Amino acid sequence: MRITFLFKFLLTAALFLGNNTFAKETDSEPAKDTKAEIKEYIEHHLQDSHDFNLFSNTDENGEVHHYGFPLPVILWDDGLKVFSSSEFHHGETVAEVDGSHYKLYHSKIYKTDANGTISYDEEHHPTNVRPLDFSITKSVVMMLVTGLLLIWLFSSLAKSYSKNGAIPKGAGRFFEPIVLYIRDDIAIANIGEKKYKRYMPFLLTVFFFIWFLNMFGLTPLGVNVTGNIAVTTALAVIVFLITNFTGTKDYWKHIFDPLGDGMPWFGKMIIYIILVPIEILGLFIKPFALLIRLYANMTAGHVVLMSLIGLIFIFKSWVGGPLSFGLSFAISMIELLVALLQAYIFTMLAALYFGFASEEHDHNDEPELAHL
Amino acid sequence: MDKLINDFSFGLFIWQIVLFVLLLFLLRKFAWKPILNAVNDREEGIKTALASAEEAKKEMQNVTADSEKLLKEARAERESMLKEAREIKNKMIADSKEQAKTEGDKMIKQAQAAIESEKKAAVADIKNQVAELSIEIAEKVIKEQLSNKDKQLKLVDDMLGDIKLN
User: Fold this and answer.
1) Does residue B24 belong to the interface with chain A, where contact is any CB pair within 8 Å?
2) Most buried of the four, A77, B98, B99, B124, by CB within 10 Å?
3) Radius of gyration of chain B (CA)
C-alpha cells in the first residue's frame, strides 16, 4: 500500500511540476514582463473559473490556444439565463443572451453594453452590475466529482462489509482505519461516548471532502477548491449551524451566564457587560477561524508552489531550473501532508465545538481550548 | 480583506452548501451508517467472542478442577473404605480372639470348678467310706478283741503304754 501510494504521489508531483506550460499563458492584454505574468497567472489559478481549462499555449503568431472544456453559466438577472461559458471565449468576447450582454473580467461576470465596456472607479474596481452567478464553475465541477467519488468509494466499502462478513476489502483496508481514527480519536475524544454518534456523519463527510479536494488541488488539474473563501465559508456556516442547533441548555448557559452561582448578581452584572459580548463574539469567531485557517493554508500552499515553479522562468538558467524543481518537489511533499493535516484540523476543531455544544455538566472548570 | 470580500462568490457558496448537505445525507444513508454499524457489530462480536472464550476457558478450568476434585474424593473414599475394612477385619479378629479366650477361660474355670467339686465330693465320699469302714473294722476288731477278758485288759494296757510313751 505504502509503495503504491508513494508511487502515485511521485507521479502526481511530477505531473504537477510538469505543468509549467501553464505559465506561458498570455491573456489578450499586451505583453508584460515575466514576473507580472507569473503573478497574474497565480492569481488567476487561485480563483474559480467558468471553464475547465487544462492548459493553454501561445503559438508563433502570438495567438493563445486554450485546451479544456466549457462549463454551463447560470445567471439570475431578471430571470434565469443559462448558456455555455464558451460564449465568453476566455473573456475575449461579450456574450449576448436574451438581449443582455455579459463580459468575463478577472473570472467574474459583469453586465455590460453590447461593446463590453467596463467602467472603473478610482481604485480600478469595475462599477458594472454583477448578476447573481450560480454557474457550474470549475470548483463546482470538482465538488461534484469529489462527491461522486466519495459516494462511490464509501458505499462500495459499506457493501463490502455486508458481503465479506464485516471485513474490509481493497481500498477499505486503507480507509477503515481512518474512519475508526475519526470515530475514536476525534469524535469520541471530543464529544464523548454518549453523543458522538449524531455528529459522526458530518465529521466523516467533512474530513474526506476536505482531504480529497485538497489532494485534487495538488494534481495538475489546477483546481483550488478548498482555497476558495466561499467554499470554506460554506463549511464553516454548516459547522456554526450544527454547533448552535445541537447546543444544550448548559452550552447556552455557559454563554449568557458563564459564572453561574459563583457570584452574586450585582457582581456578575459588571463582569457580564464585558464577558457576555465576548462569549457571543466567540460563537462567530470559532467558525470564522475555521474558514480562514483552511482558506489561508490551502491558498498559501498553492501560491508558494506556483511561485517556486515560476522561478524557473525568472532564473532561466541551468541552476534555477533544477533548484526550483527541487524546492517545489519538497514543498509538494509538505503540501501533501498539509492537505491531510488541514482536513484533520478542521474536523478536529469542528468536533471540539460540537463537544462544547453537547456537553451537559458543569462548565466552570472546562479548559479554554475553544479559542484555538 | 477587501480582496477577500471581492473574491467571495455567492453562487459558489450556495452550490457548496447545497452539494455538501446533499453529500452529507447521501453518504450518511449509503456509507457512514452501514460502515459504522458494521464496524460496531464487528467490535461487539469480537468482544462477545472474547468474553465467551474467556467464559469457556473458565468453565473448562472449573470442569477440570471438578473432575480432579471428584477423583481425589473418590480416591480418598476408596482409601478410607479400605482402611475401614481393614480395621473392621482386625477388630473382628481381635474380638473373636478375645471372645474365644474368655469363653475358653470361662470353660476352663467351670471345668476346674467342677473338677474341684467332684474331687471334694469324691474325697468326702472316700472319707465317709473310710470312716464307715474303719468303724466297721473297729467294731469287728473290738468285737473280736473284747470277746475275752484278757484281750480287753491287754488292750487297755497297750493303750496305756502308748499314752505313756507319748
Assistant:
1) yes
2) A77
3) 65
Using DSSP bridges, classify how beta strands A72-76 and A132-133 pair: parallel, antiparallel or unpaired. Answer: antiparallel
> Which of A324, A303, A302 lies closest to A313, judged by CA?
A324
- CA distances in angstroms from B116 to B103, B106, B107, B130, listed in the order given: 19, 15, 14, 20
Number of Cβ atoms within 10 Å of the Cβ of A32: 13
Maximum Cα interatomic distance, chain A, rounded to a whole number of Å: 82
Residue type, A306: M
Q: What is the pLDDT of residues A289-310, one digit of tens each?
A: 999 999 999 989 888 888 888 8
B19 Cα to chain A: minimum distance (Å): 7
pLDDT tens string A37-93: 788 878 877 777 887 877 777 777 777 777 778 888 888 877 777 888 777 777 777
CB A158 to CB B38 under 8 A?
A: yes
Return d(Cα A37, Cα A313) in angstroms, integer. 10
Residue A23 and residue A41: Cα distance in Å, rounded? 6
DSSP class of residue A262 equals G
Cα A140 → chain centroid = 11
Domain ranges of chain A: 34-137, 140-358
CB pairs under 8 A between A and B: 128
